[in-house]
Amino acid sequence: MWKSSAISLACSGKKTSTWLYKSSDASFRNLNEAQISDRIASSRERVGNEHSRCGTPFSLSPVGGKVVRLHSCGVVPRGYYLRRLANYLVSLSFRPDFFSVPNCNWNTMSRCLVTGGAGFIGSHLVERLLDQGHSVDVLDNVSTGDLVNLRGVVDHPEFRFFQGSITDPIAVTEAVRGADVIYHLAAAVGVKLVADDPVRTIETNIDPTDAMLRLAVQGGQKFFLASTSEVYGKNPREVWSEVDDLVFGPTTKPRWAYGCSKAIDEFLALAYHQKFGLDVVIGRFFNVVGPRQVGDYGMVVPRFLEKAKRGEELTIYDDGSQVRCFAHVREVVDAVTTLMETPAAVGEVVNIGSDRAVSIKELADAAIRVAGSDSKVCYKTYESAYGSNFEDIRRRVPDVSKLERLTGQKPSMPLDEILSDILNTPVNGK
């Protein structure tokens, strides 16, 4: 089997680059250079058509020892097109022996589709993927996201935006075409939204995920499914691990619709992995916070900080003893991208979040302290905000040992530092 023991760039000037491809097919060992030339010639038109999309002239030629030289003059092909061109050679049983592009890596450079990419977490993920040298497409209907979240990348040459809903099969099919990796973050989210419209929650979270998984099987894409700590329901354990039972309340309480729908998404993803061999990684997010998050859908941190900045009362529902763990979105995105580069994570469910427990009353006090505010705290019942059918989770703390074992890291930013970063980042800023 071919191994990339030496990866380097051989170039003869700023605007010329050369890649060498070596055959890993045993049948090629018996071919002479003329026969290899014939094999290359038969594919030259196909490769050339793809490569011309970059506007970059190229040449292919044998150099001996079952090695092929791809010589590019002009602008070095980037991202998706370079990947596609190289994949044609791979389909001919060649592998790169010497290969490199600045800030890119043969093993990780991909065209990525991020559903929900205009949202809070999605927009941070888009930036990270672009920074890593990937090409990124976003599919988002901007119902709960905001295009302003993407203003820092809108002019990036490797970024494309598709405005459409994941519930639209045509939009989804178009967006998936050409992708190497799918990050499926789009979903109905937020306690208030789920409580107000459980039908939308169920329709948005289940059928589109099934459709995308089917397309991923057909296209061979690797798939990240964003799930949630809500799938644990009201499990009574102090700390939740990925193998713990899911304990939901009665169907008469709409708040369980979200957790149930995301649990079904997980079942679907794992079934596609087991039946079709689809490379799937499932991440269960625990209270992700940071710049760009808004309080419109019940998110507590932006709601508290906005009130504290204005010197207004911070409203705590119930007695404030509920326990949560808050992780900065940058650390969460780091965990997601690292998991997708970790072969051992395929087919696994992984908790992603901080394991530092904080009560809601402590969060309110921290928001007031960090904002330098003289705000007071008031208490209200859940019923006053979410209706009589609402039921809350008293404690939500993840066991992140699996994440740490797979990636060597876990979110650890202290709460005050997280809150300060949010306060010091301009509204809708990067």
Brief summary of the model shown:
Keywords: Decarboxylase, Lyase, NAD. The protein is of the alpha/beta class.
The CATH class label of the largest domain is Alpha Beta
CATH architecture of the largest domain: 3-Layer(aba) Sandwich
> Number of DSSP strands?
17
Helical segment tally? 14
Overall shape: it is globular
CATH fold descriptor of the largest domain:
Rossmann fold
Low-confidence stretches: 1-29, 43-84, 92-108
Give the radius of gyration.
25 Å
Helix content: 25-40%
CATH homology superfamily of the largest domain? NAD(P)-binding Rossmann-like Domain
Question: In oligomeric terms, what are we looking at?
Answer: single chain
Distance between the termini: 44 Å
* Total separate domains: 2
What is the strand content? 15-25%
Protein name: dTDP-glucose 4,6-dehydratase
Domain NAD-dependent epimerase/dehydratase: 113-353
EC number: 4.2.1.46
Pfam families: Epimerase
Structure notes:
Its EC number is 4.2.1.46. This protein has 2 domains: 16-98, Alpha-Beta Plaits (2-Layer Sandwich), CATH 3.30.70; 111-424, NAD(P)-binding Rossmann-like Domain (Rossmann fold). Helices cover 36% and strands 19% of the residues. The chain contains 14 helices and 17 strands. β5, α3 (120-131) and β6 (135-140) form a beta-alpha-beta unit. The longest helix is centred in the middle third of the chain and has 21 residues, at 256-276. Residues 1-29, 43-84 and 92-108 have low confidence and may be disordered.
